[in-house]
Each structure stands twice: as structure tokens, then as C-alpha cells.
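Our preliminary data section would be incomplete without showing what the modeling component actually yields. Below, a chain of 333 amino acids is followed by its predicted structure, encoded as C-alpha cells that our downstream tools consume directly.
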Amino acid sequence: MFAEAIKRIERQYEIRRNQADAAFLSEKKAIYESTPRLSEIDKEITKLGIQTAKLSIRPSSVENQKEIENLQSKIISLKNVKEDILKELNVNLVPKYSCHKCNDTGYVINDGLSEMCSCMRQELLNEAYNKSNMHSLKTETFANLDLNLFSDIPNPTKYKSDISPRENVKKILNISEDFIKNFDNPKQKNLLFTGSTGIGKTYISSCIANEIIKSGYNVLYQTSPLLLDNIFNYKYSNNKFNASSSNDLYNSLFNVNLLIIDDLGTENLTAAKFSEIFTILNARLITPNTKTIISTNFSLEELSKMYDSRILSRLIGHFNICRFFGEDIRMKQ
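Predicted structure:
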């Protein structure tokens, strides 16, 4: 998967891990220098470990076993003393790796086999496809969402709703939080965000992506036009390099945990593209552990005039439809 980028990403992981290890050794040295008892305990544990190993290769006997158990008890006691000292110092003396699953190696062992960690898969997706779409992922979080940007004044005539834009966004946030919480529940519906530009659809999509990635899932973010261009590159390009890259993307469209399709309806519509959109939506609805978020500037009524009933029936039947309304918050910012 993404063979052109794997070596580069692996090198980045190696650098990241080496930096974490170096920082750990530096921290450990400083703590041991200020608390010599820790070093003494380590030496005692090592000495007792060697004695235990020597006894374990001797012929088995009751007396020998008792001596081994006595040494092991002393080791446990010393480890407890060490732990108490570190607690008093308020220190967790372990390397600070960015991923606790793979310890910044990029790989984990699953059923005795080495496989790519979800964090590295996400790095590859980000580098190959998400970079231009998810560049603000670290800052676009629920914690940074300012609800004061949304008006708290209802305007039924303008927005065709009895609630204010702020209350509406709060409702959508509750739906989004439920989506995240129940992401691996097969009964959890996908999300369709509709509404004009600049009223929070892409931002909240990024907030959800952030939380999903933190939970160890992978996210692929594509605009609808770019997504379809990549599919057609995969199917019809004579350029082997581009075809290989598009092949990776094409497979991910069906298998990635969360696919975010932005700007649905802005693609240059053809019968072939209708078919591709339907294939993606239909396949993901029956593929385990996958969810989809679609955002569009068009209303459901407008979409019904663009796409045939097969696509609309899946959007209506399998997606929670969230209508955004209000003033362009980017202008307020």
C-alpha cells in the first residue's frame, strides 16, 4: 500500500522513535543523578536476577525452588520500592512515544504477524491524499469551535426553521458526538451535511475526523471532483505511476474506516460518474467497520434533481441528514 511513500514514512518513524528514546535517557539520567537510590535498586535487581538465572539451570529440588521464590520475592519488593519513589517524584519513567500501540515503530504484532499500525496507515493516507484537504486537522477540533459565531436569533422566514443557527449547530454536534461514540456499531447511520458555504460543514467534518483518528481508525478525506478524477485515473490512465497511486486510493475508498466526501454535487456530472458514486456508497453500506460523511452545498431537493433514485434512496435511508443554516462564519472570523 502506497509503496512510494512507505520508506519515507518509515524513516520519519525511526527519527521520531530515536528522539523519544534520547529524551527518555536524558530524563532518566537527570532523575537518577538527583535520586541515587534508584540506581542502587536497579543494580540490586540485576544482581538478584543473575542469581535467579543461575539457580534455574541447576537440577530441580525443593530447596532450590524455595531459594528461587525468595529471590523473586525480593525483586518484586525492590520494584515496588522503586515505583513508590517515582510516584513521590511524580515521574512516569517510560519513553514518551506518540503512539502507544506501536511505540513509534509503525508496526504492531497481530496474531503473531507483523502488520502496519493504524497510525502509520493514517500517515500514508495524509501524505498521499489528505494533505490538501485536512491541513488544519490539528486545530479544527470541537474544543476550538466557537458557538458564538453562530447567531442565537431564530429567523423562520430566512432559515425555514423555528430554532436559531446556534441551537441548530448544537443539535448537529450532539448527532456528531453520537456518531463518534457509536462508530463501530453497524446500526449507526452515516452523516450527510447540507447547507451553503461557510457555515461549519467542513469544520465539523474535520472535528469528527480528529476524534475518529484518535480512536485508532483511519480517515480518507476527498472532495467529490478529486475523488472521481482519481477513480478515472485508476481505470483509464496509461501512466503506470499515476495508475498505481490511484489503485491504492481506489481500494481505500471501499475499505477505509471513515470516508469523508466533500462538495458533493460540484463534480462534472456524467452517467459514468453517477455509477461510480453509487458503487462507492452501496459498497460501503455493506462493508463492515466503515462509515461515510458527505457534505454538500445543495439541499436534498436539489440533489434529487442531480442524481437518480438509487443514490437518493441510500442517502435518505442510511444517512442522518443534518441541515446547516446561518450566516457565513468565515466572514465573522
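The domain at 117-332 is CATH 3.40.50.300 (Rossmann fold). The mean pLDDT is 89. Preliminary results of this kind motivate Aim 1 of the renewal.
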